[in-house]
Amino acid sequence: MGLTAGALLPVALFSAATLSRLAAGEREANRQRLVADARTLAEGVDRETTATFRALQALGGSERLERGDLDGFREDAVRVLRTQPTWHAVILARPDGLRLLDTRRTSVAATAPPRDPRSLAEAVGTGEPVLGDVFTGPDGALLVAARLPLMHRGRVRHVLSALIPAEALRDLVRVPGTGENPWIRTLVDRSGTVVARSRSPERFVGQPASPRFLEAARAGGEGVYRDTNLDGGRSYVAFGHSARAGWTAAVVAPVDMLDGATRRSVLTIAALGAAVLLVSAGGAFLAAGRFNRAIASAAASAEALARGARPRVEAEGIAEVARLGEALERSADLLAARERERDQHLAVAEAARAEAEAASRTKDEFLAMLGHELRNPLSPIVTALELQDLGGSGGTREHAVIRRQVDHLVRLVDDLLDVSRITRGKVELQPERIEVRSFVARAVEMATPLVEERSHRLTVDVPEGLAVVGDPHRLAQVVANLLTNAARYTPPRGHIGVRAALRGAEVELAVRDDGRGLAPELRSRIFEPFVQAPQGQDRPQGGLGIGLALVRSLVELHGGRVEACSEGPGKGSTFVVELPAAPRAPAASPPAPRPAAAAAAAPLRILVVDDNEDAAELLADVLAHAGHEVRVAGDGGRGLELAVRFRPDVALLDIGLPVLDGYELAVQLRRRLGEAAPVVIGVSGYGQPNDRARSAAAGFRHHFVKPADLEALLAAVAAAGRERGRAPATEERA
User: Fold this and answer.
1) What is the spatial distance between Cα 193 and Cα 250, in angstroms, rounded to a whole number?
2) What is the dihedral of CA 13, 19, 22, 28, to 10 degrees?
3) Cis check: omega of the bond before 707, within 30 degrees of 0
4) Are 711 and 678 in contact (CB under 8 A)?
5) What is the number of H-type helices and E-type strands within the chain?
6) Are 151 and 127 in contact (CB under 8 A)?
7) Residue 375 has what pLDDT?
8) Is the pLDDT of residue 541 over 70?
9) Residues near 708 by beta carbon (within 8 Å), at least 6 away in sequence
10) Bridge partners for 565 per DSSP
11) DSSP assignment, residue 361?
């Protein structure tokens, strides 16, 4: 049906447009015919008017009138009146309107006023013949005066008038032909009064024409419009003006008469077109059944193919559908083969993914265990170094070497574990508003040993008031890693510069050096883990290739970005970090005065439980040196027994303990000692986020990762003692 409509509708539309044009042309031709008829009627009025004025002109040339013989002139007027069947009377009047002669009467009242004074005045004023407007005579008849001014020595001496009955003008408006003709012909005088009408003259002659007609007639010389005529029907009204008489001729024809035939023709053709369309659609519907069944079969086969079933197309003898069925069957074979291939690839990919996940888990477990195992021996070493510093024997060269190498090893372990945590999304920032100068100074302090070791000159240009929102520790780590990297890859006695500035809404921090520089192929990979510049077998620069990977990850966690710039090998490098600038801070109120610190912390009873004997003993020495009473246990079971007897204020517990691990030991301490249970602080090589979460759940107040910062650890112990409200041990024993 759509194809049929698509084929026939353009033809139907073209036919409709053609019919519309033809109908419009026919209507316009009818309208022009009406106008031509109105023009002919107006010309007929002009001819009759001209004939009337010629007859009056001949009568006005009478010698008797010239001699003033009015009786003789009456005879002439009566003789002419008999030759003019449409005339009613002849009147001779002076210019002032006084009648001198009237063929209807033997004597004339000199004072009788004229019935149409306007036309008389116009004839006297212009000296030209005038056809007046319709008026009612003394006997009640409707008359029209044709007035001819008679000139003598350049002045109007007399006005000769012929009175014509309006009824005598019916011949002018009579519609030709026999029978009832719906056309109406009308004459309207200059005042807008109907003078003659072909239909119902008794009703309309002497009455004013319609306002719409008068408005149209005054607007133009001739024309046609649609209106409701005086009979109440919808009609076309054509009009034209008489040039000689000044009257308006109108021809009225019913709309249905002019447009009906055209409309009926259009409707007939449209009905025939609709019938043709319906017949064609019916034939198309019957013929399309076979196509529809074939297409429905193909659609069902395609759905079967989508479900994985074998397609079966009933072509109904249609070659195109048969080829479609063959294509669907070939597609089914290809899909089956590709599905088998996909299953094989999925199996391989699943095995590879499982293997990768297992390798990742093994790597994470290895890194965690590596950190724990490395931190366990590092902890007693660091503690021993601290004890040497406390004892005043830490100033030797060997001591400084051990301190530097231990710090370097601690940083390597921290970086290695940080990379593992960042790749697993386990790093949580502690953001705060911090001045760039603050964390840059901390980073410089961290990198100073390597910078001094390689005799570099370091310059720092960071203005005051420049601030960002971030984790101070992590931002210091970013800058320290960049400084360490610059110091490591810059030959001794090189120059390293740190510069920061505000660029729009971002803080730009750059670390520049004049060292080895970067090859173009290395710049795009320098921030990937374990990527380093080529080194010799002696690895003079050292490192694991994870410092810059940490830099990029930490900067991106802060919503910033980092890029490396270098003009090439041997031309130095510049690493630029961009971070969102912090909003301007409100004016700070002056700090409140701080109370004076106590002269010394109150001594506490402290239990240290660690299976690393060296670490436990050295930590106990540090605590004892701080004035505390310390007991040491090597496993969780002995630690619990000792706590029951010793009643410690604070317990420093390792996590990986034999017999009872640190988590379980903390739970048992609360269960056995109740309100007398000590404040538990963890000191362990396990420092992953899940390790900290488990220690917090077990009741640990703090969690320090080995090797612990002894100053921070002692501060935490002192805070725990203040929380317990512990009196000095000497007073308790007393």
Assistant:
1) 12
2) -100
3) yes
4) no
5) 20, 23
6) yes
7) 64
8) no
9) 379, 382, 683
10) 574
11) H
Give the pLDDT score at 349.
86
- Token readout for 73 is 């002139």
- Amino acid at the residue 351: A
DSSP E strands: which ranges in 674-721?
679-684, 702-705
Neighbours of 663 (CB within 10 A): 21
The closest alpha carbon to 62, from 46, 80, 47, 50, belongs to 80
Tokens (6 digits) for 438: 């603050």
* Position with higher pLDDT, 241 vs 378: 241
Q: Taking phi first (over 0 means left), then psi (-120 to 50 degrees means alpha), and beta for anything else, what does residue 232 get?
A: left
Phi, psi of 90 (to 5 degrees): -120, 135
Task: Provide the β-strand partners of residue 573.
Answer: 513
> How many other CB atoms sit within 10 Å of the CB of residue 484?
21
Task: Give the SS3 label for residue 254.
Answer: strand
Q: What distance in Å separates the CA atoms of residue 216 and residue 224, rounded to the nearest whole number?
A: 9
Buried b (16+ CB within 10 A) or exposed e, 506-516: bbbbbbbbbbb
Across the range 448-459, mean pLDDT stands at 89
Q: Are 41 and 185 in contact (CB under 8 A)?
A: yes
Give CA–CA dist 521/518, Å, rounded: 8
Task: Report the length, in residues, of the chain.
Answer: 734
Residue 229: strand, helix, or coil: coil
594 pLDDT above the threshold of 50: no
- Work out the average pLDDT over 459-469: 92
| Distance (Å, whole) CA 316 – CA 322 | 8
pTM over 0.85: no
Partners of 562 in the beta sheet? 577
633 CB-near residues (< 8 Å, 6+ apart): 607, 608, 609, 616, 639, 641, 642
Helix (H, G, I), strand (E, B) or coil at 344: helix
Residues 6+ apart with CB under 8 A from 319: none
The tokens for 79 are 């003789």
- CA distances to 107, 114, 133, 474 from 111, rounded to whole Å, are 12, 9, 22, 130
> What is the SS3 assignment for 162?
strand
Q: Under a CB-based contact definition with an 8 Å cutoff, are residues 417 and 411 in contact? A: no
Among the ranges given (268-282, 526-540, 672-686, 713-727), the one the predictor scored with the smallest mean pLDDT: 526-540
**Look-up: residue for tokens 């012929």?**
162
Please, are residues 499 and 553 in contact by the beta-carbon 8 Å criterion? Answer: no
Closest CA to 573 of 476, 495, 457, 461: 495
**Taking 50 as the threshold, does the pLDDT of residue 734 lie above it?**
no
Ramachandran sector of residue 570 (left: φ over 0; alpha: ψ -120 to 50; beta: rest): left
Which amino acid appears at position 105 of this protein? R
Output the CA–CA distances (angstroms, integers) from residue 94 to 105, 111, 123, 143, 366, in the order listed: 17, 11, 12, 20, 143
> Which residues have CB under 8 Å from 421's CB, separation 6+?
427, 688, 689
Cβ(563)–Cβ(414) below 8 Å: no
